[in-house]
Amino acid sequence: MVWFFIIAAILVIGFVIFYIAAGKFFDFAFSKDGGKFPESDDGEDHSPWKNYKEVMKHNVAEAKAENTMKDVWIQSNDGLRLHAYYYPSADKAKRIILCAHGFHGSPFLDFAMQLPWLHKMGNLLLIDERTHGQSEGKYITFGAFEKYDIQKWCEYLNADNPNHLPIYLYGESMGSGTVMMTSALKLPAEVKGIIADCGYTSLKDTIKDEAVRMMHFPAYPTIWFLDRMCQNKAGFRIADADAEAALRKTDIPVLFVHGTKDQMVLPENSQKNYAACASKKELLMVEGAQHVCSYGVEQKTYESHAEAFFARCEAAE
User: Fold this and answer.
1) What confidence tens digit (pLDDT) does each residue in 39-97 have?
2) Which of 33, 63, 198, 317 is the most buried (most CB within 10 A)?
């Protein structure tokens, strides 16, 4: 009888510990006000983007100084007001590029390095993902709901596209995972291709990796508690955010890009996504690049691969 109470007590304590751990992970990963990484002990900026900050500021300032951007809005399937910046090309546009940023990012952070080049490539739709920027929302869902937001943005773009310009979905990090998930949904025929930079395979795999590597929690049973919290608080399942599964169903061409030194979303994520992808595909691994720094490390290579990708997609029309 004593052993029964000891075992029961251990189970109860274990349940409480894992529930608390899952709650902390939920607040960090899914809440609008979460996602705050601790500052380094020495006070130095160790982010992979530190070497590019000045050029990023310059690019954004120049783009905004043109005064050609306009605010546009749509409503999500679950009633949220979603915001984006529409940035028309200075020349006659050949295409439209929808840019989806990453976790706690913004279009003027995640795409700042390549903004001048992108603007030459076509009209840009720089979206604020739900819960970010001027878009409404309480929870980040890593593509579970965001993929339907992207679908709505595609419909918005195509409603005012009399010349039937090709539309491309371009995502970085969480935005990359999201546009890959969108690829399996019903989209306008004008959506011709996807550029997926540093995307993950699935939310489940990301939690399993990050829980252990960054948050120092065991993946199981933490993930089981997390899944229940996602259901009860935010209305989605972890399995709803699966890029690898979506790619098995897509017929939209995909250019995968990943830095070999990425420590936030490990390079094997793009390798697995590339292997799973059922459509025409290409994988560009940029040697030495950290998370979403491939453009900065190999600008000319990045541009030439992307421009060749556009040309192939448009030649296939």
Assistant:
1) 545 555 567 778 888 999 999 999 999 889 999 999 999 999 999 999 998 778 899 99
2) 198
- Tell me the pLDDT tens digit for each residue of 116-127: 999 999 999 999
Closest CA relative to residue 142, chosen from 216, 64, 202? 202
What are the strands, taking DSSP E only, across the chain? Answer: 70-75, 81-87, 96-100, 123-127, 167-172, 191-197, 254-259, 281-286
Q: Which CATH architecture has domain 70-202+243-317?
A: 3-Layer(aba) Sandwich (3.40)
Q: Which residue has the tokens 């830095």?
A: 259
- CA gap 13, 57 in Å, rounded: 50
Q: How far is CA 133 from CA 31, 266, 312, in A?
A: 14, 27, 34
Cβ burial of 302 (10 Å; 0-12, 13-18, 19+) is buried
Distance CA 111, CA 63 (A): 12
Q: How far apart are CA 229 and CA 112, in angstroms?
A: 35
